[in-house]
Amino acid sequence: MMYLFKAICLCLGFAVPALLVAQPLSGDALFTNADNGMVQLSPTADYVTSYYRNDKNHYLDLFELSTNKSVSRVALGNDNVLDAYTWLNDSQLYLSVLVDNQYVNFVGQLKNKTVELSLIKTKGYLVHILPEQPGKVMFAKRRRARSTSYDLYIIDIDRLVKGDFAQAYQVEHDASNVSDYRYDANLNRIITSETDDEEKTFSIKYASLKDGKWHNVITFEDNEFSFKVLYFLTEQTIAVLTNKDSDKVLLREFNINDQTFGEVIYQHPKYDITSAGFDNNGGLDYVTYKQYGLSQKLYFEKSKARFNERLAKTFFNQEAYVIDYIEKKKISLLYVNGSSEPGQYFVYNQHTDQAKRLFVSYPDLQGMSFSPSKQMAVKTTDGVEIEAFLTLAQDIDHSTLLVMPHGGPIGIQESDRFNKEVQYYASRGFSVLRVNFRGSSGFGKAFSEQGVGEFGRLIEQDIMSAVNQVMQSHEFKYMCAIGASYGGYSAAMLAIKHPQLYDCVVGAFGVYDLPLLFNASNYRSGKEYHDYLAKTVGNFNDGMMDVSPLYLFDKLKAPILLIAGREDNIADFEHSNRFKYILRRNNHSVETMFYRDTGHGHSTWYGDRHEAAITSEFLLRTLKLKMPEPGILSEKSKLALAYDFAIIADGFSADARIDNDEQKALLYYQKAADYGHPRANFNLGSYYHSGEQVALNMDKAVQYYQKSAELGFAKAYARLGRMYMEGEHLAQDWGLALSHLSKAQKLDDSPFNNIRLARFYCIAPGKYKNVARCIELMELKQYEERSKAVFRSAAKEVSKTLVWILADADLTQEELELVQQFAMASFQLTEVDVTFENVADGIFEYRESKKFGGHGEYRLVAPGAQVNTYGKNKKLHIGVLFDLDVPGIDGSTVRTAVAARWSMTTADGRRKYLQHKFLYGPPVGEWSMLYEVGDIEETATMTLEIFDFNQTRIYFDEYELSPAS
């Protein structure tokens, strides 16, 4: 691909943002997926397609180059994930979408600038697009339901959509247990995987399309390791994906003749490689991997040197490379990023020698400034040149250097690409130093091998060479070591070896007991794994204790924060747990954040945000650094810092992975509220509303709700609207209720806000009542397109709201019939007239069945309404068991419903609603409306009401609660 261009033309009207004042970057906007990903050119180069995501849905986006705008967005569902897609020809695409953990395939047809999806009902997957056979594809068809075996066909695309394989060409083979197919376009070979259940072996075979003769590539014990053939580099050398002798799946050479593994072609430091592509010369073109469940594609620049030089000059200090190219149109798709550029896409026209920007990767980061990295050439103590990257803090500057060793340590490389973690800390006033010490990849095999076995020795010496060089030209008041995985180990060792320099340490998912690496489990004690470890740590020896932080704890002087995943199978959790134990036993300042259900790093962006927030807060608090005053910050800056405190509070309050501590949650919500966090103000209002952790104070609760609403938090408007609607603490005011509920719905048209506004329109008096609008807002069909989770949430809110309507609304007969018709359609009901029979009410206790597998039952233990005599260990329920009957009709053939609610009135006259339950189904068997009573702390009256569909209260009872004497 030999071409040049003279200038960049930003023809879409996007101005290159001027350098702005540095400000803290929001973790919410920073640690997230790009809005646009998996970007491709259409074969005609008329369109760019991308995987576009927002809060409401996931889409396949069709962007027209001639008009510079999106012309079609195909909704894929917010619960679903676009796993892969490819253009089959000029007008058709193939999509593979992950739906409920199953792959569902579609063909997209481009018509009139719109993509229409057709479901491929036949289970299977695309093997190859066969460009030499227009209109046909190679498709692997599953042999039968739930089978892991497939047959291979060459089939017309239109017939594939219809599931018509009658005229398809079947590729014959003798395999009875083929588990997958791949097609090698270089040598036109089919590749299969086969299992032998009797021998418990797994084999890879290939056959040429010309003669159909199968040849064995490799046979090994099933589940011994993964092995997937991707590409024939030569007749006998193939590129494979394997985790043989490695923790992660990587791309590696394999020689068929001598059955040996060769050089590693590519490995990702954090993720398994899922696929790869090669150019016509056998060079690596791209690799793919999954990041937080989404497919990511990393391309490698294969253009000529002169084009690369021009890209480098045009996008100075940035990385620019071609990610797609249409030869017949001479159109290229470029991706550009850099240390201070999160990413943007350009299309380059070779004929006009111009490039225009299409869109950016992270729109929410537009207008923000980033700290550029300074590239450094460092001479080590033994005269070797290594490279390092220094990113300086800007306007907010705490005069603190964070020395951040990378993970690995072998085969990983720091780069000058955009680094979210680095930018997060730099925007908060910390300078960051990263070093490509010996052992890092990208500098030749000898350089990489020099780091083997140098834990705590040569690697840390290289890092300190970079530190010393930085200190010659920059002055910092504080210095901390911070890192993850090997970086966590290295951070601790740097502070141990240089206690006079380092003021604090953060070690995440680290290794602190090197001997433990070799015997943490049976898996870790085998020879093969020891051989694998030897390529990184070196051979096991007694000297490892001399470079293990666990055994050098007394030399560590700096406070340390240990972060770990309790399910970490790479740096076992025991490393961090032992280190914590020995440090605490010796009264060393150590803090911990041990996440449950977490492995070697986080599986969600939320985890990364939380870790960054607790780390930043630890640094500020430990070094006694002053936070910027809210008054001197922009609104975005204040919210960024507020978000840090809020996510820490969320962790202590609502995150199942973190031990709950409501006092800490309250403290950090208050800090977040001080910086104007809308939800933190709302949560503080909820504390005062419930009287949890603070004294009950409804006036203060309302003040916080009002502040949260002023800051634009929809839920605060919804809460105030409900209080005005119900007359809770605030005087009932239907006008103010409508105003607040409408604002909530306008800010966030979630099912919760829509349906709460619906309740208003059904139960409000006089001019405010609008039953038609009420039903319109509750219609469930409008939520089906969003996601299954949203639909379930909507159905739940509708069922609760129907209870409110049947209990409180003053409806005409015509309005009541509209509500009945809506409920019957929404919940598949057939009858609304019921009678209440065989009532048993009072205090119940649940008793397990004595028979294995039998069902327990609720037994009446006290038929009265006084609840005050049972101990803490008893699970008591109050309420009623009853039968429903539809007069004159066989109950097994119908579906009906009743509406029930629990409320509580305290001794001071406050009334709050505890539960609204819409009970529906066939009127057979025993129905129940029970409420579990925990420890009774105050005198109160519990009230149960049950209504039928004619708004008749068919049951009422009160239960007097008082603390046990």
Automatic annotation (TrEMBL):
Keywords associated with the record: Hydrolase, Signal
An annotated GO BP: proteolysis
Protein's name according to its UniProt entry: Prolyl oligopeptidase family serine peptidase
Signal peptide (UniProt feature, chain positions): 1-22
Matches recorded under Pfam families: Peptidase_S9, Sel1
Domain Peptidase S9 prolyl oligopeptidase catalytic: 418-624
Recorded GO MF terms: serine-type endopeptidase activity
